[in-house]
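Checklist before submission:
- one chain only
- standard amino acids only
- sequence pasted in full

Submission:
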Amino acid sequence: MSNELEIAWKELETEIESRKQIDKEEIMAAITKESKNPLQKLKYATRLRMNWTLFFSVFCFIGMVLSFDYPRAIFLWGIGFTYYFGGFLMVRHYLKQLDDSFDHNIKSLLEKYYNKLTRMLSIEELVGTFIMPVSVVMGYCLSAVYRGETFTQIFSEGKEIALLMGVMILFTVIALWGVKKMNYSAYGKYLEKLKTNIDLLNTIDG
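Returned file contents:
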């Protein structure tokens, strides 16, 4: 009788372990399926961002070429080109690391997307918050340079400089809010979905 109970107990343990394994595989399959769309959307948004930075890089380069009679304007356009082309290189760098093959471990794939993109966005927000007010100064300087003024003349008018500083402060506030808002619109809900799925996978593994 004791042996029969022992055999029955082992069979029950085996059945429970088998059921747990099946449940885990079903959950993993469901998470994998639910993650495909967010991953594709994140990759698409990143590719779109890369194309926009390339577009503005070309725009600034054309501005440089068309300003060959205005050396100061070439300098200003060059700053813009450096910023956007640098952004293009950064986004392309992160995009090349976004492998959406589901042949790999799903948890590692989700963590890679989440960590890479949150890192990219934090850099972009930091730089974007700084560059947006600077772009106001550059636009102001460009218009003055095309009127034939030097940098010394441009920054010699106290009232205009005070107004410019006020506009810069306003744009800084807008940038702090606007950059985060735009990034959340493009990435936020998909990154949140990945984070939820990563937490679920951690719970299963735990």
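Reviewer check: The helical segments are 2-66, 71-96, 106-146, 151-154, 158-205.
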